[in-house]
Write a structure and sequence with these properties.
Strand order of the largest sheet: 1-2
Largest sheet: 2 strands, antiparallel
Oligomer: single chain
Helix content: 55-70%
Structural class: alpha+beta
Shape: elongated
Number of strands: 2
Radius of gyration: 20 Å
Order of helices and strands: HHHHHHEEHH
């Protein structure tokens, strides 16, 4: 998920047009919509100080906008392979017989130091499923998540 995709999603969620948002971050009325469109389509990539300004206006953690996000299963796998080299990724498999007699493997992934972080996410998902959080509240949590 690119910065541009995230910007567009957040901008529309917050109810800004490209022109309005561009003016809020400091572009002139004449260029505001064009510059924001360029960021959203990936023609241009905003510099770090601009990302911080945009994040402040959109009320999100700047890290959410800047963090690279894999967009395919292959990219996720490449990320996991990289983590395997540097961050203590452990894989385990359990052979399971399904109700209909098929044998399958359930593969588990453990990344050292991630358990607490994943538990926090799991608790938020459970709250969402139980109706204790709305979808919007859950999305707001994800956009503003930081390590505590």
């Amino acid at each position: 998920m690119s910065v541009g995709y995230k910007l567009k999603k957040l901008r529309t969620l917050r109810g800004y047009t490209q022109r309005e948002f561009g003016q809020l971050v400091g572009f002139s009325t004449v260029t505001a919509d064009v510059r924001i469109a360029q960021y959203e389509t990936g023609t241009r990539v905003p510099k770090a100080d601009m990302v911080h300004k945009m994040a402040e206006i959109l009320k999100v953690n700047p890290d959410y906008l800047m963090a690279p996000a894999p967009e395919s299963m292959e990219e996720i796998m490449r990320t996991l392979l990289f983590l395997d080299e540097n961050n203590g990724v452990k894989l385990s498999a359990q052979e399971v017989i399904t109700d209909d007699g098929r044998e399958i493997k359930r593969i588990s992934l453990s990344i050292m130091g991630m358990d607490g972080l994943l538990e926090e996410w799991y608790e938020k998902q459970k709250a969402l499923q139980k109706g204790e959080l709305t979808q919007d509240e859950y999305y707001e949590w994800k956009m503003n998540w930081t390590v505590e």
